[in-house]
Amino acid sequence: GSKIDTRNFVGVTTIAFSAVASEMSGGRATVNIMASQIEDKNNARNTTQKNATVNLVKNNGNWLVDKFEWK
């Protein structure tokens, strides 16, 4: 069997701590997300704060992501 090389492993964990609907009309919505992103790489941990915008569309009663963009 082949071995997996973990020397170049990068682990990323993103935790959203705020989600605010900024627009909502009909079957469309825009949500602004504030998140903390933790990156583990080469035995070092780096934490950054990030913002994102998520555009949602309603389809058969379910909200689906139409676009996700980090700012």
Key descriptive features of the protein:
single chain, 71 residues, mainly beta, 4 strands
Short description:
This protein has 71 residues and is an all-beta fold. It has no helices and 4 strands.
Topology at a glance:
Blueprint: E1 10-25, E2 28-41, E3 44-59, E4 62-70
Antiparallel strand pairs: 1-2, 2-3, 3-4
- Residues in helix, %: under 10%
Structural class: mainly beta
Strand content: over 45%
Give the overall pLDDT as a whole number.
92
Largest sheet: 4 strands, antiparallel
Low-confidence stretches: none
Plain-language structure description:
The chain is mainly beta. The protein has no helices and 4 strands. It has strands at residues 10-25, 28-41, 44-59, 62-70. It has a 4-stranded antiparallel β-sheet with strand order 1-2-3-4, with no helix packed on it. A hairpin with a 2-residue loop joins strand 3 (44-59) and strand 4. The radius of gyration is 17 Å and the shape is elongated. The N and C termini lie far apart (42 Å). The model has no long low-confidence stretch (mean pLDDT 92).
